[in-house]
Amino acid sequence: MALRIPRPSPRLWLLLILVAVGGILALFEAQDTRRPGPVPYDDAGEPDYYLEGASLTRFNANGVPYQKLDTPRLVHTPIDDVTRARTPVARLYDDQGRIWFGYGDTGILGPEGRHLTLEGNARLQAPEEGWQLETNVLHFDTETGHAWSNTQALLQQPPQHVRGEHFDAWINENRMRLTDNVRGFHPPQGQKEQAP
Questions:
Q1: Is 106 helix (H, G, I), strand (E, B) or coil?
Q2: Could you list the residue range(s) of the whole structural domain that residue 125 is in?
């Protein structure tokens, strides 16, 4: 006598297919290693959006870029209309098309993107001129092209370096000023460089 196995019902087949598809989807989900960090929250409130690995480019009325900001994390809070960035790299374009670089541990882009503040190991570089400014807090007004620092600043253009308590630069006018308790080193021709 031959054993006869009953034929599975269509409902059982449907259940097996759903279990198999669910198992495959669970495997795909488990392989997703890029998980977003926690939703940031600070005194300004909960953000309306945050981006990871972001590149923000701002354009003027003529469609020409005047500011670019690259950051691993960008957070915008609607209460104060402020955008915060972690370890930002800012590219600032002057009226002559030159690129100026700004760096900091944190960055704050104010309402309407007019005011950029870089805090913690803030630097401003002018590659074409070969100088670099180092300070703790650096402010930049995108409409006027005015960069300034009210904290101690070190301006370097090797082999010379100058320190001061207050720094101003107008990048569109190709002009800068270092004031208050200014001291520096400018070696004569042939003399070795001293550490700043």
A1: strand
A2: 49-185
| Residue 41 located in a structural domain | no
Dist CA 75 CA 155 (whole Å) = 31
- The 10s digit of each residue's pLDDT in 47-63 is 788 888 999 888 878 88
pLDDT at 102: 93
Bridge-based pairing of strands 166-170 and 146-149 is antiparallel
- Which H or E run includes 77? strand 65-77
Confidence of residue 105 (pLDDT cuts 50, 70, 90): very high
Its pTM stands at 0.71
Contact by Cβ (8 Å): 66, 60: yes
Q: Say how many domains are in the chain.
A: 1
